């Protein structure tokens, strides 16, 4: 499950996927957007750490991959999840093992956001941090998104990075009490 900007981003940069899709953090809390209806797919598996609407299998990727098949999925969607994982490096290794060579991984994680424990909240991620957690992927389409629908802009490299000028973008728009920025990235798993 994700927010509207995550759905917009995914539909722009991965408009089609007819293979097997894995969604991590698929439990519907009633205030999120669903990715499930976005694609024609062979198989769609939604996993979460606890059962609920939208959850096909209960799997904790820090503890392992459960009954999920390795090198199986064509696309994995992981939005607003990794900040809640106490050991993201183990989570990343297990998640990576589920994606087939050439398969895609969409990660959206907070760079700046309030504390929000579901069940807890541990980390914030830069695009460089995501690259370090998933070294077996080539990354593209690095964009920041805000809480304003449609406000998505490139995360440039080095001194060209515009994240520091967000205060100058759309000052007339409603903002949460803290700045809100997610990093959004698409990775392609490198063949071994």
Task: Tell me about this structure.
The protein has 192 residues and is an alpha/beta fold. Helices cover 15% and strands 29% of the residues. It is built from 3 helices and 8 strands. It has an 8-stranded mixed sheet, sandwiched between helices. Helix 2 links the parallel strand 4 and strand 5. It is globular and about 40 Å long. The relative contact order is 0.19.
Give descriptors for this structure.
192 residues, alpha/beta, eight-stranded mixed beta sheet, 3 helices, globular
What is the number of beta strands? 8
Q: Kindly report the average pLDDT value.
A: 88
Helix % is 10-25%
Strand percentage: 25-35%
Gap between N and C termini: 30 Å
* SSE sequence, one letter per element: HEEEEHEHEEE
Contiguous helical run count: 3
Described by its quaternary structure, the protein is single chain
Looking at the structure, what is the overall shape?
globular
Strand order of the largest sheet: 3-2-1-4-5-8-6-7
Decide which structural class fits the backbone. Answer: alpha/beta
- Spans of at least 5 consecutive residues whose pLDDT stays below 50 are 164-168
* Main sheet summary: 8 strands, mixed
Radius of gyration: 16 Å
């Amino acid at each position: 499950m994700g927010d509207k900007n995550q759905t917009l981003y995914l539909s722009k940069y991965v408009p089609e996927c007819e293979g097997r899709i894995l969604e991590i953090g698929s439990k519907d809390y009633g205030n999120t957007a669903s990715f499930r209806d976005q694609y024609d797919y062979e198989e769609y598996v939604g996993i979460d750490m606890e059962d609920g609407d939208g959850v096909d299998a209960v799997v904790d990727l820090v503890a392992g991959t459960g009954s999920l098949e390795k090198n199986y999925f064509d696309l994995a969607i992981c939005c607003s999840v990794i900040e809640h994982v106490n050991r993201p490096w183990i989570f990343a290794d297990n998640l990576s093992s589920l994606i087939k060579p050439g398969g895609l991984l969409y990660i959206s994680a907070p760079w700046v956001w309030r504390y929000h424990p579901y069940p807890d909240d541990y980390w914030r991620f830069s695009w460089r941090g995501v690259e370090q957690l998933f070294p077996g992927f080539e990354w593209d389409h690095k964009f920041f998104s805000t809480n304003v629908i449609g406000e998505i802009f490139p995360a440039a490299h080095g001194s060209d990075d515009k994240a520091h000028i967000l205060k100058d973008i759309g000052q007339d728009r409603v903002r949460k009490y803290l700045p809100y920025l997610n990093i959004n990235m698409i990775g392609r798993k490198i063949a071994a």
